[in-house]
Amino acid sequence: MNTPVSGFSKLSKSQKIDWLLSRHLNESETAREVITRYWNQDVPLQELHDGFSENTITNYYLPYGLAPNFLIDGELVTIPMAIEESSVVAAASKAAKFWLNRGGFKTEVLGTLKSGQVHLNFEGLNSEMEAFFAFAKASLLQSLESINASMKKRGGGIQDLRLVDKTKDLKGYYQLHATFETNDAMGANFINTSLEQLAMTLRLKASEFKGFSTDRPEVVMSILSNYVPECRVKVSVSCSLDEIGEVNGVTGREFAEKFVRAVNIAGIEPLRAVTHNKGIMNGIDAVVIATGNDFRAVEAGVHAYAARDGKYRSLTNARIEEHNFVFEAEFPLALGTVGGLTSLHPLSKLAMQILGQPSAEKLMRVTAVAGLAQNFAALHSLVTTGIQAGHMKMHLVNMLEQIGANDEEKAQLKKDFEDKTPSFSGLKESLAQLRIAADQS
Ligand code: HMG
After folding, report:
1. Distance 389 CA to ligand 1 centre (A)
2. CA 90 to centroid of ligand 1, rounded, Å
3. Has 242 been annotated as catalytic?
């Protein structure tokens, strides 16, 4: 058995690679070549990337694409998307084009507040804890003044501080629940620093408070919540059934009815809702990643919101209202346009430029649009042609690469499969036939 490595983090990058090759890759020079081929030749840029994470040995690229023609609240927007999955950017672009002449996307920011908690354990009387909070609240808030100063100047900072009694759910469990406005920053570091300060002040005030008959409250941990239902954006599209026009041989009304049915199925059936929402996250994550935001935080928060009434459901809703088709969603999205990776990664900075240096609110709107558009495109395919035709058409180029077709063969096979859903076996057979034909000529 291999022995564990000690002090790996202290090794240089090349020592880490040597260790990897000797320990796991049988000294493979091909593996070394793969690792180094992905290094950027621009040394300061490579060093910047190495610094984003730890124990880095190389870079892992994602395609960075553009989905143009989004009409959002009357403004034409091009959305940058970083994603490895084929057909997502095409689908977003197709949805943008569909809604361009049908009124575009309408958005509304419903709130921008985030929260964090100091989680406490206190086994004494509830009345003592309440009296202590009344005694300490002003000092707790005051202790945040210097941390909050610059956020406050921009209209943000702590907005509310409450004591929450959770002892019915877990013995001895209380929270200091703090609500924050973080302006254009996602605010994770600001919130966590504020919470740790609150925890420190709480300990100090608890030592001064004379009203505890038994133990003092104990701080378990202090951390922001990635569940942000009060930081939410609404997005919608609507048009008359006539404006939908004919879709793959069915009338606008028939298409809309089937579409609404599909959304309703995801509203009651978690097996479908998870896939439905995954399709939405194709769009949301791609924008979140392109703009250097935290997609794990967004994913966790969005899926929790999808289960807010105790059952996991579709994040989108659709209906026919008289003669109109309406399709909408609300997403909790804590995003930043300043600070963190947004201001460090050259491609995130580029994304901000493409989006016209947006505020966090504007980025929430754009990201929500990408989510709704993605769901529209996926359902459009699902209730008409099925998903595979369009998806595999986009994936064809990867499949041709995998079966080892050369440029000439790729061009011919793309033509041959223009109107067919490609499969590996079908492509391999066609490639073999092409090669036999080439040998015979
Ligand atoms: P199409 O009608 O064959 O495309 O759709 P087209 O060639 O007629 O082009 C129409 C427009 O689509 C283009 O306009 C582009 O906007 C866009 P133009 O630029 O020509 O003016 N478009 C492209 N954009 C960039 N690169 C391309 C490209 N091709 C078309 N190569 C399409 C083809 C794939 C767009 C369509 O079939 C579609 O939207 N499919 C849905 C694909 C999808 O949802 N993919 C996500 C991955 S599947 C998944 O993970 C989620 C899922 O499980 C979720 C769920 O179940 O709900 C499906």
Report:
1. 10
2. 4
3. no
84 classed as catalytic: no
Token duo for residue 191: 């919130």
Residue 44 confidence class, pLDDT cut points 50, 70, 90: very high
Contact between residue 71 and residue 100 where contact means Cβ atoms under 8 Å apart: yes
pLDDT (0 to 100) of residue 391 = 76
Q: Which of 294, 362, 380, 393 is catalytic?
A: 294
Maximum alpha-carbon separation in the chain: 98
Residue 168 annotated in active site? no
User: Between residues 273 and 388, which one has the greater pLDDT?
Assistant: 273
Which of 18, 85, 130, 299 is catalytic? The answer is 85
Token look-up 């796991």 returns: 24
Residue 294 known to be catalytic: yes
Is the CB of 100 inside a 6 Å radius of any atom of ligand 1?
A: no
Going from the Cα of 239 to the center of ligand 1, the distance in angstroms, rounded, reads 21
Spatial contact of 380 and 325, defined as CB atoms under 8 Å apart: no
Domains, the chain, ordered by start: 8-50 (no CATH), 71-110+231-388 (3.90.770.10), 113-224 (3.30.70.420), 395-440 (no CATH)
Cα angle 305, 307, 308; round to 5? 65
For the stretch 67-93, pLDDT in tens is 999 999 999 999 999 999 999 999 999
258, burial (CB in 10 Å: exposed 0-12, middle 13-18, buried 19+): middle
pLDDT, residue 1, reads 63
By CB atoms closer than 10 A (0-12, 13-18, 19+), residue 318 is buried
**C-beta of 391 in contact with ligand 1 (< 6 A):** yes
Which residue in 16, 391, 393, 409 is the catalytic one?
391
Given the CA of residue 266, which atom of ligand 1 is nearest to it?
57
Give mean pLDDT, residues 311-329: 97
Q: Which two tokens stand for residue 249?
A: 């041989």
Banded pLDDT at 389 (limits 50, 70, 90): confident
Specify the pTM: 0.93
> In what helix (H) or strand (E) does residue 422 lie, and over which residues does it extend?
none
pLDDT of residue 265: 98
Ligand 1 neighbour 97 (Cβ under 6 A): yes
